[in-house]
Amino acid sequence: xxxxxxxxxxxxxxxxxxxxxxxxxxxxxxxxxxxxxxxxxxxxxxxxxxxxxxxxxxxxxxxxxxxxxxxxxxxxxxxxxxxxxxxxxxxxxxxxxxxxxxxxxxxxxxxxxxxxxxxxxxxxxxxxxxxxxxxxxxxxxxxxxxxxxxxxxxxxxxxxxxxxxxxxxxxxxxxxxxxxxxxxxxxxxxxxxxxxxxxxxxxxxxxxxxxxxxxxxxxxxxxxxxxxxxxxxxxxxxxxxxxxxxxxxxxxxxxxxxxxxxxxxxxxxxxxxxxxxxxxxxxxxxxxxxxxxxxxxxxxxxxxxxxxxxxxxxxxxxxxxxxxxxxxxxxxxxxxxxxxxxxxxxxxxxxxxxxxxxxxxxxxxxxxxxxxxxxxxxxxxxxxxxxxxxxxxxxxxxxxxxxxxxxxxxxxxxxxxxxxxxxxxxxxxxxxxxxxxxxxxxxx
Length: 444
Description:
Layout: H1 4-13, H2 17-26, H3 29-36, H4 41-49, H5 53-61, H6 65-74, H7 77-86, H8 89-98, H9 101-109, H10 113-123, H11 147-157, E1 166-170, E2 176-181, H12 182-187, E3 204-205, H13 210-219, E4 224-228, E5 234-239, H14 240-258, H15 273-300, H16 302-307, H17 315-338, H18 347-376, H19 379-409, H20 414-442
Parallel strand pairs: 3-4
Antiparallel strand pairs: 1-2, 4-5
Helix pairs in contact: 1-2, 3-5, 4-6, 6-8, 8-10, 13-14, 14-20, 15-20, 17-19, 17-20, 18-19, 19-20
């Protein structure tokens, strides 16, 4: 992409469409899609029109739903319908979710009945579920089939399936009983029964969270994850390429939210100032309102500050360490939740582990704070700072570690609540602890 993008951009800027078409023809579809995503929408649409129809579909599938939406707005209706009809059902649904309702309805009306029916299956599941991201087009076989019969079935129906490398095996009621790989169909005795080569499948339930199912698919290194309904009937497959895209998108979202912002849906340099502002302003408003609590705490201890002004010098240090300690714990546990290493039922274990971790961190930082503050000011001030660091680190780590688990149990994205909640809690509560210890130690 590093080579294609400047060459393609230069050709389009000079209106040399012949050269642009040559550059596009020489690059694989994935590289073309990555290059188009970094161009201005108008230039991207011009380049897309230079692609042959069969390559245009592969490139379009490689774009993000937001980039697809922008391209659809600039292409002619016939071009859009041709591309839309060629997409896999799950990719069609991803695009429909981005489009205005009127446009989505018009597109659905213009595809054939089979495509419309397959798309309707995926649309029937909730947003965010794996059913919404699966492909309902697959080749299945029966346990009693021979490998030869199963392979013939793959040859007959495989062109309509998104993947043929993992073949689900179902009974007469369409309940999933196992999977067989294409490798087994090709390499073993064709007279063998499929039942003799069954592998136990790793499955996902259609209404399960798509990110959790996708991570399971990627981590277990399976080419496709069978998706079943509440009665274990096979309804679709989640392919590894779709799972990888889901995990990557979730990682981008979590990283943005951990920094107190929403993810950008376009490359940074192509995003408008208004769009970037919109992703950040909500969190800044939340954090700004939470600062009112900190001000109220300072007002409560105004007299204490008046008697020992030096205490004010350590407020940024203590609130900063408390917030960072809580954020570190929250980030670690959020990651553990995402990878399946922890779950809400582990709340007690996580709280105990983070409490001990925070206590050890507090002991190290508190000892250093006590030594510095005692040397520069007085042993009593050093004692206040040291004890506060121990208490704040212990409290912040415990709260930071348990907040993602509580959020997940409540059905809320842990990345959404962790940063603002922990910042607010650590600032306000840390100051309460600080001034309480100061009054006790200094006899105020």
